[in-house]
Amino acid sequence: MGAAAQGSGDFWALLRRGGCVVLMRHALTEPGIGDPPGFRLDQCNTQRNLSEAGREQARRIGAAFTRESVPIDEVRSSAWCRCTETAELAFGRHTVWAPINSFFNDATGPAQTLEVLRAVRGLAAPKNLMLVTHQVNISALTGATLAMGEVFVTRPAAGDRLPVLARQVF
């Protein structure tokens, strides 16, 4: 299955120039919304996790970044297993970063969003930062929604949003 590009800019060209905050929603999961009652972050078997199709999707994403010779200087992930597994399968590395943890049923969303915006403000070319997180977080950062395994290319900007310059579905 190939990748389809959408957006106002050329996805790969923007990434090659650098200075991008790359927002990736975790790959495809088992059916459901949110996590089962009583889930625990330290026990993957209590969470909604990647499906086999999601694992393959994550590998495709990583292969595409390798094929296109796009440098990713740092990969940060939400602590949820579906995000850490996506990051590992796609990029072979990740650092858990609490500001991009899901706030699906939590009031911490505005504070987390502000923390991310502050942290990425100084990002400049040639560096690219990959954030593997959840739809709720990405929507708060950009004002846009995306599918599982979809990737947004953004750049730090003035204001309370990261503008989506390009997007890619894998």
Question: Your description of this structure?
Answer:
The radius of gyration is 15 Å and the shape is globular. Strands 1-7-6-2-5-3-4 form a seven-stranded mixed β-sheet. By secondary structure, the chain is of the alpha/beta class. Strand 3 (74-77), helix 3 (81-91) and strand 4 (95-96) form a beta-alpha-beta unit. The protein has one domain: Phosphoglycerate mutase-like (Rossmann fold). The longest helix has 16 residues, at 52-67. Helix 2 (52-67) runs parallel beside helix 3. The chain contains five helices and seven strands, in the order βαβαβαβαβαββ. It is 32% helix and 19% strand. Pfam families: His_Phos_1. This is Histidine phosphatase family protein.
Coarse morphology: globular
Helical amount among residues, as a percent range? 25-40%
Distance between the termini: 8 Å
Radius of gyration computed on alpha carbons: 15 Å
CATH class: Alpha Beta
CATH topology description:
Rossmann fold
Estimate what percentage of residues fall within beta strands: 15-25%
* CATH A-level architecture: 3-Layer(aba) Sandwich
Catalogue the unreliable spans: 1-8
H-E order: EHEHEHEHEHEE
